[in-house]
Amino acid sequence: MKIKFLLGILLIAPIFGRGQFESIPTLDSLVLSSFEEGKIHKVWLALGNDGFGQPIQVPVLIAKGNDTGKVLGLTAAIHGNELNGIAIIHRVFSSLDVTQMKGTIIAIPGLNPLAIANQQREFVDQQDLNRLFPGKEKGNRSQQMAFQIGEKIIPFFDYHIDLHTASFGRENTLYGRGDMQDDTLSGMLRILEPDIIVSNKGEASFGEASGLTLRAFAMKKGIKSITMEYGNPQVFQKEMIDRGVIGIVNVLKWLDFTKGETKMPPAKNVCSKSYWIFTKKGGYLEVHVTLNQKVEKGEHIGTLRNPFGEVIEKYFSPEPGIVIGKSTNPVSISGGRILHLGILENLP
To answer: Helix (H, G, I), strand (E, B), or coil: what is residue 243?
Structure first.
C-alpha cells in the first residue's frame, strides 16, 4: 500500500501537475460570484495535501450563464478506474454556448485524482470514497477526502448527475439509479435514456458501507441527484460517451439551462431493486447470459469449472429479471460476482 501511495504522488505530477497549467489558478474554495458570467472557467480546487505537502487538486469546469438560475453538478471518476464520465463532461462543455445559457454548470472531470493516477478504483488507502460520505474532518485519509468533497463542492448543486462505470473484471449496461417516485429525478433519468433504471433512494448497490454514497449524501442536502453508469472501466467507449453527451445536453434543455425542446421518452426496464449473484466456490467461471438479457427463474446463468475442466457448480437465476452487469473475469474465488440482476417492475 505504501508503494501505491508513493506511485500516486509521483504519477499525479505529470498527469495533473502545474507545469503545463500555470495559467490555471489553484483555489482553496469556490466562490461562484467571483466568476464572470457568459464564460467557461477552469480552476484547480485543493482538497487536502499529498505527501510532499502539495495540494491534492481536482479539475473544475464552471460554465456560468448570463442569467441567474440553478446549478447543475456533474461529477466523474470518484472511482479512479471509471473514465467514460470524464470524456462525457469534456464533450458536453465543448458543446456549450454559455452566452445563451441560464444558471451554472459545475463539473469535476476527475473527483479522485490519486486513484486515477494509480489506475485503481479506491483512494490511496484502499477505501471506497463512494461509501464514506459525509466523511470526517479529522478522520483518516479517505474520510478527510470525502469530507472535503462534501464541504467544498456538493453544497453548490441544485441538480446532480454522478457518472460511473463498472469496475475491473466486470461490464455494465448503460443504466441509471434514482428515485422514480420523484418527478424531477424521474424526468432526468428518462431523458438520459438508459437501457435500465433501478429505482431507489441512494442506497449502495453492493459493498460494505460505513457511510453514504455521494448520491445519498447529496439527496440528504435536498439536491436532486441521480447516478448514471456508462459501460466499462479504464477505457473510453465511443458509444457510451456519445449517448452520455446527448443525454446530458437534453437534460440541460429540459431543466431550462439551455434553449431548445426535448421529448420525454418513456422509461425502459424500470427495476424495483437489484442485487449481485455470487459463486459459492472457486474456479473458472463462464457467464452464459448477455447484458440487457431478460432471464427467467431457474434459467442457467453460469458454470464454474475446476482446473481440470470438470464442472463444479452450475448457477441459475433465482427469479425473473434483467442482466444489468456481469463478470468478465473467468478467475473466480468463492464469493466472486456472477451477474447483477435487476428485478423488473410490472412483470407480465
So the answer is: helix
SS3 content of the chain, % helix, strand, coil (to 5): 25, 30, 40
- Which amino acid type is present at position 167? S
**Which of 225, 254, 283 is where one domain is finished?**
254
Give the model confidence (pLDDT) of 143-186 as tens digits.
999 999 999 999 999 999 999 999 999 999 999 999 999 999 99
Number of structural domains (the chain) is 2
What pLDDT digit, counting tens, does each position of 180-192 carry?
999 999 999 999 9
Q: What is the pTM of this model?
A: 0.92
What is the grid cell recorded at 339? 451477474
- Give every CB contact of residue 49 below 8 A, 6+ residues apart in sequence: 55, 56
Identify the domain containing residue 39 by its residue range: 2-254
Do 97 and 183 fall into the same domain?
yes
Rounded CA separation 123/141 (Å)? 8
Q: In this predicted model, what pLDDT tens digit does every residue of 325-335 receive, in sequence order?
A: 999 999 999 99
Give the distance from CA 103 to its chain's centroid: 23
CA distance 328 to 312: 19
Q: Among 172, 159, 183, which Cα is nearest to 74's? A: 159
Q: What is the DSSP string of 100-164?
A: G-EEEEEEEE-S-HHHHHHT-SS-TTS--GGG-BT--TTS-HHHHHHHHHHHHTGGG-SEEEEEE
Give the start-end residues of each E strand in 200-330: 224-230, 270-278, 283-287, 294-295, 300-305, 311-316, 321-327
